[in-house]
Amino acid sequence: HVKHQMDDLIHEMNDPSEMISWCVMSQKEVHDAVSGLAEGAPINLEFVLKDWGFIDDPFKAYYGQIEASDVANWYSQYRTLLLKPNLRNFLGSTDVNEAIRKTLTENPENFWYYNNGITLLCNTVNKKPMGGSDRRSGYFSAEGVGVVNGAQTVGSIFKVFETNPDLVSRAK
């Protein structure tokens, strides 16, 4: 009886194009999904680095500029899980964080110059073949991502993004 009602609802919602689907999950599958989020299931990201570079020794590392709005979206999706490897979470309203927010709201184009950035550690990172070897834009995928430096920057970017995403979209 319930399946028939669900099928009718899905059919109605997916007209004219598919928007929703459903699946039956056991109690164990639901528990595994929820507990994985609570424990901090690995964060996997895809992103674009502008003017990127690469260091191979002593550890493989990429560096470059990323859109601040991408960072805000990461925090919006993962919140404190993104900052889990950091020594502390986002502290909210502090003098330092107010200064970060002030730069974003008054000089978003210069944010990169006034901010020391963020550092992500990950289990794996790979440059995708898109864009070839051109260092102006690189497309990357990373698995097991966490912010290890820059929790205040990440949180401050998100706070400005909540009220003024257009400003944040102009910052790197």
Alpha-beta content class = alpha+beta
- The DSSP helix count reads 7
Order of helices and strands: HHEEHHHEEEEHH
Strand arrangement in the largest pleated sheet: 2-1-5-4
Low-confidence region ranges: none
Oligomer: single chain
Helix fraction? 40-55%
The description of the largest β-sheet is: 4 strands, antiparallel
Q: What is the β-strand count?
A: 6
β-strand percent reads: 15-25%
Distance between the termini: 53 Å
Output the radius of gyration: 20 Å
Shape: globular
Mean pLDDT: 87
Keywords summarizing the entry:
172 residues, alpha+beta, four-stranded antiparallel beta sheet, two-stranded antiparallel sheet, 7 helices, globular
Task: Please describe what this structure looks like.
It is a single chain. By secondary structure, this protein is of the alpha+beta class. Helix content is about 40%, strand content about 20%. The protein is built from 7 helices and 6 strands; from the N terminus they run H-H-E-E-H-H-H-E-E-E-E-H-H. It has helices at about 1-15, 25-40, 70-80, 95-105, 110-115, 150-165, 165-170, and strands at about 45-55, 60-65, 120, 125, 135-145, 145-150. The strands form 2 sheets. It has a 4-stranded antiparallel sheet with strand order 2-1-5-4, with no helix packed on it. Strands 3-6 form a two-stranded antiparallel sheet. Helix 3 (about 70-80) crosses helix 6 (about 150-165) and helix 4 (about 95-105) crosses helix 6 (about 150-165). The relative contact order is 0.19. The model has no long low-confidence stretch (mean pLDDT about 85).
